[in-house]
Amino acid sequence: ILSGFAYGLESVAIPTLGVVIAMAAAYYFGGYYGIASGSVGMLAIIGTIVSNDAYGPITDNARSIAEQGHLSEEAIRICDHLDSAGNTAKAITKGFAIGAATLTVLGLLFSYIEEVKDAGIISIALEINNPNVMIGALIGAIMPAIFSSVLVKSVQKNAELMIAEIHRQFKENPGILQGTVPADYAKCIDIATKGALQKLVIPIILSMIGPVLTGITFGVSAVAAYLVGTILTGFMLSLLMSNAGGAWDNAKKYIEDGHFGGKGTEAHKASITGDTVGDPFKDTAGPSINTLQAVQGLTASMFIPIFVQINSGLGLIKI
Questions:
Q1: How many Å apart are CA 56 and CA 58, to the nearest integer?
Q2: Residue 183 counted as domain residue
Q3: Rounded to the nearest 10 degrees, what angle do helices 131-172 and 266-280 cross at?
Q4: Segment 83-142, tens digit of pLDDT
Q5: What mean pLDDT do residues 285-296 have?
Q6: Mean pLDDT (whole number) for 218-240
Q7: Within 13 Å of residue 98, how many CA atoms lie on the same side as its CB?
Q8: Which residues, in sequence order, are CB contacts of 193 under 8 Å at separation 6+?
Q9: Res 198 pLDDT > 90
Q10: Structurally, how many domains does the chain consist of?
């Protein structure tokens, strides 16, 4: 687990430098419009990215079907190799999607600044000696962490409900383990679907209420700083979780392929723990931060008419 986390931290460096270079070049040649055009350019090949990203789930499902269909060990081994390749492909496509989302949110940030200027009430100055700006940046910086925490806890709660249902079925129908009675798969699917939809409420509220309360309380400059804080921590955190989760998943498959003693060893048990932690990281919390950033940028722009009316855009509290 520690090695996977360390590699996840290391994986943040190169994509960050790539986004820095892309943003600097885009701004040099086209200003704010150049940054917006750069994000559109990255999204122009979204079809290729989506198709590569879909490769992973397809091979993962194929592996599950092969196991449930009692296919040969050779077929399952081949599916494991394909699944490992799918995890690597997903990590690459997620990194690309995170970079594209970051450029898009930067475009939304600059759009927000220009819209505030067009309102003619106040100009935004992101000065670090302004307490309101620093407060906004710090509040924005913690939002991706809180958002990720809520999502990971939701996955944990749904997993507990699923385990309880499986235990209930095994207890009430012993024939399931013997293969003489089919399991109630529909009930498990129902639990997963309902849990996924119900647990969306709090993340949605968090993503919208943060910039609104910050703008009303500390003003338009604090909201701009809020978006900056969200972009910085969200970009790093999403890359960390996506890549670390993929590393943990592939480590388990590598051990199951016969390395480090193979299945049943202490290394294999540790890799299962890493995979259990990595799945909500790479499939839930990491990619969802992109959505958090985009929603907050759009929400901030939508509420500009309200922000500028409160103490001429300075907010209720001016420190």
A1: 5
A2: yes
A3: 120
A4: 778 777 877 788 888 888 888 888 888 888 888 888 776 667 777 788 888 999 999 999
A5: 90
A6: 92
A7: 31
A8: none
A9: no
A10: 1
Q: What is the pTM of this model?
A: 0.85
Q: Please, what is the average pLDDT of the chain?
A: 86
Q: Is 102 a domain residue?
A: yes
With contact defined as beta carbons under 8 Å apart, do 22 and 38 qualify?
yes
| Domain range for 154 | 2-313
Assigned token pair, 195? 């849990």
Inter-CA distances, 270 with 251, 255, 258, Å = 10, 10, 15
Tally of CB atoms within 10 A around 272: 16
Q: Which of 113, 295, 130, 303 is nearest to 216 (CA)?
A: 303
Q: Which of 254, 252, 250, 243 is nearest to 282 (CA)?
A: 243
Instruction: Indicate the DSSP class of residue 125.
Output: -
- Which amino acid is present at 148? S
Neighbouring C-beta atoms of residue 27, cutoff 10 Å: 16
Q: Measuring CA to CA, which residue among 147, 288, 127 is closest to residue 211? A: 147
Residue 127 carries which DSSP code?
-
Positive or negative: CA dihedral 190, 191, 197, 198:
positive
- Identify the CA nearest to 268 among candidates 253, 247, 246, 279: 253
* Alpha carbon of residue 36 to chain centroid: 22
Determine, yes or no, domain membership for 318.
Answer: no
Q: What is the pLDDT of residues 56-68, one digit of tens each?
A: 788 888 888 888 7
Please check whether residue 151 lies inside any domain of the structure. Answer: yes
Find, among 96, 137, 106, 156, the residue nearest to 285 by Cα.
Answer: 156
